[in-house]
Design a protein that fits this description.
The complex is a heterodimer of chains A (382) and B (259).
Chain A (H helix, E strand, L loop, with lengths): L7 E2 L2 E5 L5 H15 L2 H13 L7 E3 L1 H7 L2 E6 L9 H14 L4 E6 L3 H13 L2 E7 H6 L1 H9 L3 E5 L6 H15 L3 E3 L10 H23 L7 E5 L4 H8 L7 E7 L4 H4 L2 E4 L1 E5 L25 H8 L3 E6 L1 H15 L5 H12 L8 E6 L7 H8 L1
Parallel strand pairs in A: 4-14, 5-6, 5-8, 6-7, 9-10, 9-14, 10-13
Antiparallel strand pairs in A: 1-2, 2-12, 3-4, 11-12
Helix pairs in contact in A: 2-4, 4-5, 4-9, 5-7, 9-10, 13-14
Chain B lengths: L3 H11 L4 E7 L6 H10 L5 E4 L10 H12 L4 H8 L8 E4 L2 H7 L1 H10 L4 E3 L9 H10 L2 E2 L1 E3 L7 H8 L4 E4 L13 H11 L6 E4 L5 H7 L5 E4 L1 H8 L3 H17 L2
Parallel strand pairs in B: 1-2, 1-9, 2-3, 3-4, 4-5, 6-7, 7-8, 8-9
The chains are: A alpha/beta (382), B alpha/beta (259).
The structure holds pyridoxal-5'-phosphate (PLP).
Chain lengths: 382, 259
């Protein structure tokens, strides 16, 4: 039961989209399937990842932080990628695929703006038109990224409905897509949505886990870390790094914001194209998430994570905004690395769980850098 | 499976008429049930009742606003169905909502609640053919007519499969896009209606982008009738009251009935 290539992760996944979009999802599925085994496509993507995005990303041993926490911390440095986060891995793959399918425009949703910036970047590189939907609340707290997208030639549209955050940006991007589906590719930014996105986006991020597995082997004498941890909004950076260790004994940990802990509440639902865990009321109305971090401020979670949680293969643990603020400063101060607020969630968990983790080796996916969050943090720490 | 919704629409069509199915948002305003009665009296063949969902991905600004207002007023699927139970509307009704509302309640429980409330049909626009299995089983078992949507993007081979699975009528999506009134009828509306008429004997009604009596008449030169949503809901938002909404529906009825 449950073949990701058919859009099923155990009982989760599926293709819950309006009929108008079904053919586009099926076309995308066929195109990805074909491209992914085409050596020419893979070579072109690898070339872009290496020579445009700057892969492979470094693995950094954090001696100072390790000393402070009592566990050995290795950071997978996705913050060093071009555009400042892991998002570029997926976007370059999807943009190449869009071109291969003959689509001339891209539409995307964004929360923190990192996926929007990455999509705007690929659109500039491939000379495609691009529209990015962003919640009005996020436009305010991630102004820098709005300006970056505009500078790159993308039109940023404000999502004014509902909670005016990532969930609503997804709604607007899907509504936009329905009307222009014949010429436009929806460049979805996480391992969520209808099939083939959860599977395809994971495959585009698998490079994080594959590199990290080798890099860990080099520093751990052929071994693997005890724990592999990542933050989860929709779950793409986590899915990418987990993919490299799925068949190992490493404990997999996803860190959720306490105000957006879809897995923690474990209520299944259907929204945005897939069947997964979803924060909702007793009638099935979707609840608004609440997190300091725009990129994790989402009431759902990709279906693969629901499956990993249901089967016990991965643990999902919440941390509070206050713990994240402390962690943001801790990593900056000890290692000279300012993390994205999203990524700081993982550091917050390490700090909180330091007794339980004593003596263990923990691989952390540092999904992005904190430049975008500095203005928001200035206000908070004032 | 055949039900009262399909029988009613077939009989309108087979007697040479065109079908009119207005949509209105359940729970929108304290007098919404009076509006349902007024719409029935104004000549609707059947009525679609929208059950509000927080994230209506197929809906444009008008129905989104209606959803938000109803949800803020504390409307629930249960309260809407409770109101419909025993309301004696006089024409068949179908509920239109999103998959999660039915899934959260449980497919079987939702289906039997519809039956208990006297609702004949159900439309779940985010549950396409590929995913309809569990719901369809529950609906068929309970005797609920599941209306499937067919969009202009569907390849030919897909249409007969949609029509086979659809009960009540086949909902032809008139354009690429979300619900809302448009200035012109999209060219795609008559084309998808014609493609469906070629492969099914079930009533084919066009919805999405049919907002004026003239558009309804034009698309019904090919289709068996229309679903009119945003235009009706906009009237409700404008506080036209049951009477005002009834007048609009009567205009559609008169136009479709012709001189
Ligand atoms: C740096 C960073 N990490 C993580 C995320 C969350 O996304 P995901 O859970 O898909 O990795 C975002 C989203 O905006 C982000 O910008």
């Amino acid at each position: 039961m449950g073949d990701p290539e058919q859009g099923r992760f155990g009982e989760f996944g599926g293709m819950f989209v309006p009929e108008t979009l079904v053919p586009a999802c099926q076309q995308l599925d066929a195109a990805f399937r074909e491209a992914w085994i085409d050596p020419a496509f893979r070579a072109e993507l690898t070339d872009l990842l290496n020579n445009y995005a700057g892969r492979p990303s470094a693995l950094t041993e954090c001696s100072n932080l390790s000393e402070e926490l009592g566990c050995r911390v290795l950071l997978k440095r996705e913050d060093l990628n071009h555009t400042g986060s892991h998002k570029i891995n997926n976007v370059l793959g999807q943009a190449l695929l869009a071109r291969r399918m003959g689509k001339t425009s891209l539409v995307a949703e964004t929360g923190a703006g990192q996926h929007g910036v990455a999509t705007a970047t690929a659109a500039a590189l491939f000379d495609m038109d691009c529209v990015v939907y962003m919640g009005a609340v996020d436009i305010e707290r991630q102004k820098l990224n709005v300006f970056r997208m505009q500078l790159l030639g993308t039109e940023v549209r404000s999502a004014e409905s509902g909670s005016r955050t990532l969930k609503d940006a997804v709604n607007e991007a899907m509504r936009h897509w329905v009307a222009v589906v014949e010429t436009t590719h929806y460049c979805l930014g996480s391992v969520m949505g209808p099939h083939p996105y959860p599977w395809m986006v994971r495959e585009f991020h698998r490079v994080i886990g594959d590199e990290a597995r080798q890099q860990c082997a080099a520093v751990l004498d052929g071994g693997i870390p005890d724990v592999v941890a990542a933050c989860v909004g929709g779950g793409s950076n986590a899915a990418g790094i987990f993919a490299g260790f799925a068949d190992s004994d490493a404990r997999l940990v996803g860190v959720e914001p306490a105000g957006g802990a879809a897995v923690g509440r474990a209520v299944p639902g259907i929204v945005h194209g897939s069947h997964s865990y979803l924060m909702q009321d007793e009638w099935g109305q979707v609840l608004e998430a609440e997190s300091i971090s725009a990129g994790l401020d989402y009431p759902g979670i990709g279906p693969e994570h629901a499956h990993l949680a249901a089967t016990g293969r991965a643990d999902y643990i919440p941390v509070t905004d206050a713990e994240v603020v402390d962690a943001f400063q801790l990593l900056s101060r000890t290692e000279g690395i300012i993390p994205a607020l999203e990524s700081a969630h993982v550091i917050a968990w390490l700090s909180k769980a330091r007794h339980e983790l004593k003596g263990q080796t923990v691989l952390v996916n540092l999904s992005g850098r904190g430049d975008k969050d500095v203005a928001q943090m200035m206000d908070i720490l004032k | 499976m055949s039900g009262v919704l399909e029988a009613t629409l077939r009989s309108r069509r087979d007697s040479g008429g065109k079908c009119l199915v207005p949509y209105l948002t359940g729970g929108l305003g304290p007098d919404w049930l009076d509006t349902v009665h007024a719409v029935a009296a104004a000549g609707a063949d059947a009525i679609e009742i929208g059950v509000p969902f927080s994230d209506p991905g197929m809906d444009g600004p008008t129905i989104q606003e209606a959803n938000d207002i109803a949800l803020e007023a504390g409307v629930t699927p249960q309260s809407i169905l409770d109101s419909l139970r025993g309301a004696d509307i006089g024409v068949p009704t179908a509920v239109m909502t999103y998959g999660n509302i039915a899934y959260r309640m449980g497919w079987e429980r939702f289906a039997s609640m519809l039956v208990d409330s006297g609702v004949s049909g159900c439309i779940l626009p985010d549950i396409p053919l590929e995913e309809v299995g569990p719901w369809a089983e529950a609906a068929d078992g309970a005797g609920v007519e599941t209306v499937m949507l067919a969009a202009p993007t569907a390849p030919d081979e897909r249409l007969p499969r949609i029509c086979r699975r659809s009960h009540g009528f086949v909902y032809a999506v008139g354009l690429l896009g979300i619900t809302g009134v448009r200035a012109e009828l999209a060219a795609s509306a008559k084309i998808i209606a014609g493609r469906l008429k070629n492969v099914t004997d079930k009533p084919v009604l066009v919805g999405v982008g049919v907002g004026t009596p003239a558009q309804a008449v034009e698309v019904s030169t090919v289709a068996d009738g229309v679903v009119v949503g945003s235009a009706v809901v906009q009237r409700m938002l404008d506080r036209a009251g049951p009477e005002g909404v009834g007048e609009l529906v009567a205009e559609f009825r008169a136009a479709l009935d012709g001189p």
